[in-house]
Amino acid sequence: MAAWMQQVLDWLEPARPDAAAPPIAAPTVPRSRPLRPAGGPAAQAGVFSHPEASREVLLAGVRVAYRLQRARRRSIGFTVGPEGLAVRAPGWVTLAAVDAALQDKADWILRKLGEAQARRRQQEDARIVWSEGALLPYLGGRLRLCLDPSQRRAGLQPAGDPGPAALYLGLPRDAQPAQIRDAAQAWFMRQARAHFTARLDHFAPRLGVQYRSLRLSSAATRWGSARSDGSIRLNWRLLHYREPIIDYVVAHELAHLRVMDHSPRFWDVVHSVVPDYAALRQQLRGQPAPPWE
Predict the structure, then answer these.
(1) Domain containing 225: what range?
(2) What is the distance between the alpha carbons of residues 11 and 9, in angstroms, rounded to a whole number?
(3) Mean pLDDT, to the nearest integer, of 230-243?
């Protein structure tokens, strides 16, 4: 299941015209054009720009630089991901037809680009500064990192009044950010394995399935996966979220041991153990996890 789901839309083209058919008329909407060199007026004016952009277009007054790729396919496809807008089009489709497709779906494209931009800003705001006193989201709450050179206190300590719970790491005061991050990650991964195992053991009997193994994932774009042989992968960074959200992901992956697709039957299986899965799914999508860098 994707941690940050790319938004994909296909704009179906009519069947390829034969040689006797008249050429496709140029649209009356503004055309896209090759991207000017970086730093030029068009690049500076762009609001949304893909790092591998080769063309740009004006959509509802907003300049969008996008990547255009020719591909063996029957339709024009749009993908809005973290990097921006990418367009894949058959080699026989004219640039005029690409222009028309972009203008036809301008509202959708701009909405998804805006959502992606807002999500990137959220992630940047949540970026962790790896030093003593840093706050980490944990099970919907927060932990404060504390360094303990004496190593007398280790692990999670109850929250003060007021204040978040403390996660003590046995590191010197002058520990480097990478050392602090790695020690915190090791603790999170131990907690993740214990928490996920308990929730898998809770939901598997209720769903009438058996899982064979659990592996922790550090994937950037997936929260979990399941294979037909019963092996489950779950992203340890799920510990940033509230327990009901974690339960949704666990149930989602176990449900795949009964239905290996996302058909209505699959969602009925998920609903049988997590009735509010739709709301939890939306919360997971709307709350980006902080980058661990």
Answers:
(1) 176-286
(2) 7
(3) 95
